[in-house]
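Hi, here's the filled form for the chain we discussed.

Project: internal
Contact: R.S.
Residues: 217
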Amino acid sequence: MRHTVLALWILFLVLSGCVRYRDTPLIEAARAGNTHAIEAALARGAHVNQKNGGGFTALMIAARAGDVPAVDTLLRHGADPNLRGGVNDWTPLMHAIHKNQIGTAQALLDGGADVNGRGRSGETALMMAAGYGYTPIVELLLDRGADPWARTPDGATVFSAAVGGVPDIDRFTLGGCQVATVNALKRKEPALHLPDNLWGRAAKLSAIVAKLRGCAY
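And the returned structure, exactly as it came back:
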């Protein structure tokens, strides 16, 4: 019983962020943005795609930090730009977008990242950027061939994310239309519209006020 309580307490500390996963030298080097240390760790035999206890690779960590030199170094040494990981099983590109890092997003695309790769729930990088209202990233992804008509298995779309927002704890936009992003999407694909499902109806409801600000849904 005592061991069970201890295990549950340790799990709580980890999930709450009080305990950080033990990282490998390669991942520590990526976290520090030290390209020399990254190359040294790889020269000593570190696996470039190894994940830490949280499911993150060095490339994901560098992408989230916006560290273009570290991303370029890891890609040059064979890091997989499409390997998914983390709590949401995101690609490195999606991790970069989550932190609004357009520089590393572009570096990943240049390095072979699949612009239409999907996360655990079927979301794409473009859906994320649209929901967050990160218009420059949306435009970058569209220029690189992102599918503006993509939808998740439960019916959410790029356009419903832009109009209705997303409930992300780090970027809570739910209930507010991302006007500049909506306009950018419509410029690229004028026929975009809200789906006739729960996601579409929720987006319409949340954007009633936003329409007065120019949300052309």
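Let me know if anything looks off before we file it.
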